Amino acid sequence: MKGSVTRRDFMRSAATGVMVFPALTASGLGPAFGLEKEAPVSIPRRKLGKTGVSVSQLAFGGGSRFVQYKTDTEAIEVLNWVIDHGVNYLDTAHGYGDGLSETRYGMVMKDRRNEVFLVTKIAAREPEAFQREFELSLRRWLSTTRN
Fold first, then answer.
1. H/E segment holding residue 24
2. What pLDDT score does 33 carry?
3. Would you state the pLDDT for residue 54?
4. DSSP labels, 27-63
């Protein structure tokens, strides 16, 4: 297809954005490089299976690096930056930071839920344990989205 992005081009652009721009923004140097004024990078999207939902080909995971931010404010700033720059597929799990990731995602979803496709994983395989984790995930999300 004419004008399509090759896998190599996409990976090069994604790697640059993932490594360089968040580091500059988080370090406070973003404005010095004009990042706040720059138009968001266009991330290629695809339909997600039979859902018909268009999701970014680059996902943002709420795992080990995300839960290592010292403050919720810092983590929320990063998550908002990611959404602002075109990533709309967000991944988290009950086990990431013992629920910290889900809680931080919930704080952002209060205002931005309609902009993203949010996925949370549950590790439990036994029905009772699965239900407990599922209910905990829902409670975390609800407690941060209600006023």
1. helix 21-26
2. 46
3. 95
4. TT-TGGGTTTTSPPP---EEE-GGG--EEESSEEE-S
What 3-state class would DSSP assign to 13?
helix
Identify the sign of the CA torsion 108, 31, 40, 62: negative
Instruction: Give exposure, 85-106, as e/b (b: 16+ Cβ within 10 Å).
Output: bebbbbbbbbebbebbbbbbbb
Asked whether the beta carbons of 74 and 65 are under 8 A apart, the reply is no
Domains along the sequence of the chain with CATH: 43-145 (3.20.20.100)
Report the phi/psi class of residue 86: left, alpha or beta, with left for phi > 0 and alpha for psi in -120 to 50: left
Q: What is the pTM of this model?
A: 0.69
122-132 CB burial, b ≥16 within 10 A, e <16: beeeeeeeeee
Structural tokens at position 77 = 């700033």
What single-letter amino acid sits at 42?
A: S
Beta-strand runs (E) in 1-147: 45-47, 54-56, 59-61, 89-93, 117-121
Q: Quick check: 140 pLDDT over 80?
A: yes
How high is the mean pLDDT of the chain? 81
Residue located via tokens 């299976």: 49
